[in-house]
Amino acid sequence: LTAILMNPHVLIAEEEKIIVDDGGDPTMLQEKSLVDTVYSLKDQVKALETNKRNEFVFYKY
């Protein structure tokens, strides 16, 4: 525990990569940086919020 506190691990977001499934096809795996993934998720959340807001307005009338 002391070693972790004295020498914390550092993530450099531009250098860290993750494997992302872009679709239902297992051959569609892509390697993306954490930064790219965060921005992609941010865009997806924004689109979902917009869709939800539009559905609410549609059902309201």
Keywords:
61 residues; two-stranded antiparallel sheet; 2 strands
List the helices and strands and how they pair.
Blueprint: H1 2-6, E1 17-21, E2 29-33, H2 34-60
Antiparallel strand pairs: 1-2
Distance from first to last alpha carbon:
59 Å
Rg, alpha carbons: 19 Å
Mean pLDDT: 79
Instruction: Specify the biggest β-sheet.
Output: 2 strands, antiparallel
Q: Assess the beta-strand content as a share of residues.
A: 15-25%
Order of helices and strands: HEEH
Strand order of the largest sheet: 1-2
| Total beta strand runs | 2
Please, how many domains? 1
The structure class reads alpha+beta
- Assembly level: single chain
Shape: elongated
Catalogue the unreliable spans: none
Number of helices: 2
What does this structure look like?
With 61 residues, the protein is an alpha+beta fold. It has one domain. Helix content is 52%, strand content 16%. The chain is built from two helices and two strands, in the order αββα. It has helices at residues 2-6, 34-60, and strands at residues 17-21, 29-33. Strands 1-2 form a two-stranded antiparallel sheet. A hairpin with a 7-residue loop joins strand 1 and strand 2. The longest helix is centred in the C-terminal third of the chain and has 27 residues, at 34-60. The chain is elongated. Residues 8-53 form the Rho guanine nucleotide exchange factor 6/7 coiled-coil domain. It comes from Mytilus galloprovincialis. This is Rho guanine nucleotide exchange factor 6/7 coiled-coil domain-containing protein.
